[in-house]
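Internal tracking record. Fields below are filled automatically when a chain is submitted to the structure queue. Please do not edit lines marked as system-generated. If the sequence contains nonstandard residues, flag them in the REMARKS field before resubmitting.
Queue: standard
Priority: normal
Entity type: single polypeptide chain
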Amino acid sequence: MSILVLGTVALDTVKTPSGIREKMLGGSAVHFSMSSRLFTEVNLVAVVGSDFPLTYMRFLKRKGIVVTSLIREEGLTFKWEGEYRGDLNAALTLNTELGVLATFKPCISEGQKKIKNIFLANVDPDIQLYFLGQACPGAFVGLDSMNFWIKNKRTSLLKVLKKADIFVANDQEARDLSEEANLLKAAKKLYSLGPRMVLIKKGEHGLFFYSKDFVFALPAYPMEKVTDPTGAGDTFAGGFMGYLAQARKINTTYLKKALIYGTVAASFNVEDFGVERTSGVNLRQLNQRVKDFTKIISI
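SYSTEM-GENERATED OUTPUT FOLLOWS
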């Protein structure tokens, strides 16, 4: 079961206490793809500018990512520059350049319109709505967003939320959108806005999952050193959605396993800059770390 992911492909400049990387391959759709590719075929829908390095395009192809709907347009690629200081759970955004992303209109093939697993990674909710107008009716839809869209495009985001099966947000985003400080109340409020499931990421403190069938909490995978957390949430989503896609079932058992796989996938992401670690991970390594994690959380 293939996955169709809409999001950003970016050139990221990131500084952390461990060092700095300039104009490295990043973006929500890229980080998602690095973990979901371990389970199933990933079709990436995004836009890049004429300055996007061909080496990065070849890299994505080598990793098995289908890039037929990754459009190259005249102009500049989306760029993000951020810095992590004392708190590695939150980045200080130093600069953002939308480039060709500002006028992006996604276009997918007839074959991709039949794909029944869709993830709307962090991008303008108006672009997400436009994209859903082309996608498979009745598909399983995962949705991510960010505080910028919650603040500036709330109406559009709420429209997308009604079309989503699962909404993925970090704890601050969940509080901002729900206007509830308590995470359980926030999850219930978000659930009432449309999605069947709500997944709240809490960084190093794990996650909280809410649905009408069950409520579930999970710690993060214990890490001694975090090099770069950029994209960890997207990597989590890729592992989560990828596992569900290959399982072809959505029930309590498979959801819990998917949450574990997503958590472990994110642990690889933070070990190095950008996709330097996740691009080299294979399913055997992921499964082994899942086994180790399962031992830690079992009672």
